[in-house]
Specification:
With 329 residues, this protein is mostly beta strands. 9% of the residues lie in helices and 42% in strands. The chain has three helices and 22 strands. It has a five-stranded mixed sheet with strand order 1-6-5-3-2, with no helix packed on it. A hairpin with a 5-residue loop joins strand 11 and strand 12.
Length: 329
């Protein structure tokens, strides 16, 4: 609405011969709306953040988690200034070693949710280019460094599974159902049903909700967000982790059911490669992706990483769903 307001101000203040025509103003506004915004201002310890997941404590502190050895943690009191706050684990749980191929290796894409008075974390253990992967669960009463108790393996895949058990995301529905989305490359994004009492799988059924065949099936990092009448499936497409050569971008599809079918803004099914881009490389913001979303009051907060030539950085923006499709601002 900023550009609409600016345009109206120009029309009121300028002489008739200088005023923008309604057609030109509309075109100018739409052009601005389709230009991706830069990340919002963040300060402090914001480098090295990758695959961020954000929660807010009942006391108002923000806790951010990311990919790394021990799962690094950052905290903030205002969602702007961040400080490094240790790691979830002093040493990676030994059961992850079989999937990472090393002791105390990097653990990937933690997903943290505050539910029923405790913090639930799902995270993945794997190695680059492999589908020999596992998703694990941990719990904490504070969400802070050193407070996490690992609860073991939730699900795993082998090289013959046909999909990849990484990039987990817990969805808790308004009816109290627990679901886990997951997947990277191979046959795409899946959903599994979880037990709300144990946090582990309640069924062996794996439901496919999105699959890309182009560009080697480069789709991962699923996040399902419910608002209004729809479930919105956010995923990251293309190449991550390559500095300024990264081509990661954030896509969305939507469905009236959590398990699909999902379609993009053009009506293309997610299972047929559909996905509307809502954020991509622009200016010096390279390869935004690895996204998560936090509902903070009335704000749908989009949290992601992007790249410079030397590191990954924290990006934070807001999402506007007023048109029925998310717009980053």
């Amino acid at each position: 609405m900023l550009w609409a307001s600016l345009g109206l101000a120009l029309l009121s203040a300028a002489a008739p011969s200088l005023a923008l025509s309604e057609t030109r103003l509309t075109r100018h506004y739409l052009q601005k709306r389709t230009t991706y915004p830069n990340p919002g201002t963040v300060t402090g310890a914001t480098t090295g953040v990758h695959d961020p997941s954000l929660v807010k404590t009942p006391g108002g502190t923000y806790i951010l988690y990311g990919t790394g050895v021990g799962i690094p943690i950052w905290t903030s009191t205002d969602r702007t200034k961040w400080v490094s706050a240790g790691k979830a684990f002093s040493t990676a749980p030994s059961a992850t070693d079989t999937f990472t191929g090393a002791s105390d290796a990097s653990l990937w894409a933690p997903d943290v949710t505050y539910v029923d008075g405790k913090y639930i974390m799902y995270y993945s253990a794997s190695s680059f280019g492999s589908s020999h992967s596992g998703i694990f669960m941990a719990q904490s009463t504070t969400g802070l460094a050193g407070s996490w108790t690992d609860e073991g393996l939730v699900t795993s895949t082998t090289t013959s599974s046909g999909y990849n058990a990484i990039d987990p995301h817990l969805i808790v529905t308004s009816a109290g159902g627990w679901y886990l989305s997951l997947g990277s490359f191979w046959s795409g994004i899946k959903v599994m049903t979880l037990s709300s009492s144990t946090g582990k799988t309640a069924s062996s059924t794996v439901t496919s909700i999105s699959e890309r065949t182009a560009d080697g099936g480069a789709e991962e990092g699923s996040w399902i967000y419910h608002t209004g009448s729809y479930y919105y499936l956010f995923t990251s497409w293309d190449k991550c982790c390559d500095g300024t050569s990264s081509t990661y971008n954030i896509r969305v599809t939507r469905s009236k059911k959590l398990t699909g079918p999902y379609v993009d803004k053009s009506g293309v099914a997610a299972l047929s490669g559909g996905g509307t881009e809502i954020l991509g490389t622009h200016g010096t913001i390279y390869g935004p992706g690895g996204q998560s979303i936090l509902l903070d009051g009335d704000d749908a907060v989009l949290v992601y990483h992007y790249y410079s030539a030397t590191t990954s950085l924290l990006g934070i923006n807001l999402l506007d769903f007023s048109t029925g499709w998310p717009v980053v601002y």
